Amino acid sequence: MKATIVVLGGDGIGPEVTVEAMRVLKEVAARYGHAFAFDQRLMGGCSIDEHGVALTEEVLVACKAANAVLLGAVGGPKWDDPRAKVRPEQGLLALRKGLGVYANLRPVRVHPSLVDASPLKPERLRGVDILVLRELTGGLYFGQPKGRKVEGGRQKAVDTLEYHDYEVERVVELAFRLARTRRGRVTSVDKANVLESSRLWREIATSVGAKNREVALEHMLVDTASMRLIQNPAGFDVLVTENMFGDILTDEASVLAGSMGLLPSASIGDGGPGLYEPIHGSAPDIAGRGIANPLGTILSAALLLRHSLGLEEEARAVEKAVDAAITEGCRTSDLSGSLSTARMTDEVIRRLQRHP
Description:
Isopropylmalate Dehydrogenase, two-stranded antiparallel ribbon, alpha/beta, 12 strands
């Protein structure tokens, strides 16, 4: 297979971890006879410094023309003024919109060798294997109108939460399709006791569930879901929810795994290139020190192989190599280990080479 992958290293540790994921993808290409071309571009704060915008039209065009996009992380203290007209996160939102990706998939699995890395008791972590789907195109982050004004000498800020029925339907239908390949359970999370948008969400989820009766559906209020993620995380299979709830719940769920550096994500739509990135931020405090955990980005590359390139065997090989490295004691500093970013990747590649 021939494929073009745009790589957006971004800011902070982003370039460091994407370089390591590229090394793994090059090893996969060599072992399985593929030809992957990597097109490295700027996005985020580095693009603001170079071009005055977080995402240039040229880079967006390149991303649209590619088979997939691999992203590191964006942002940092240099660009952290909330009053700034141009911010790194604008590039990410524009990229998602431009690519037409509407579902963010975040798998959260607790590795048996890392149960002690989580603040939760080990007995609560046994069997945790959750797939969270976060809707990406609607909700509070995109609602109009929004803004701030002064009334009678007092400031007033307005954000609006808006959802169209098709936005809800397509992400819920995807949740059911994925649940059929897993344990056959979907939990739809909303705030239907308060929000009209959540009542629409629940109605549509119920309708989709009626057409997919082989998959069990439960509705759960977001406050209950946030408690259940800590009290009984193994009780979830596929969890689907709207944009802001998903943003918050997935960060909460990352604690289960013991480190945000371990967790990947995939943002996909109907055809077109997907967007793949670790869930962690740019971590400016450790940038340039060579100690960032590359596994979340490497596992994001595995999702890229699976969802954008259709290479299931190769994706599984990468995931097994990561599992083997963790099982055999390979650790970066976030997991109380001493391996550098590059050494951790070396260990993954060594195990990728070990097995056919």
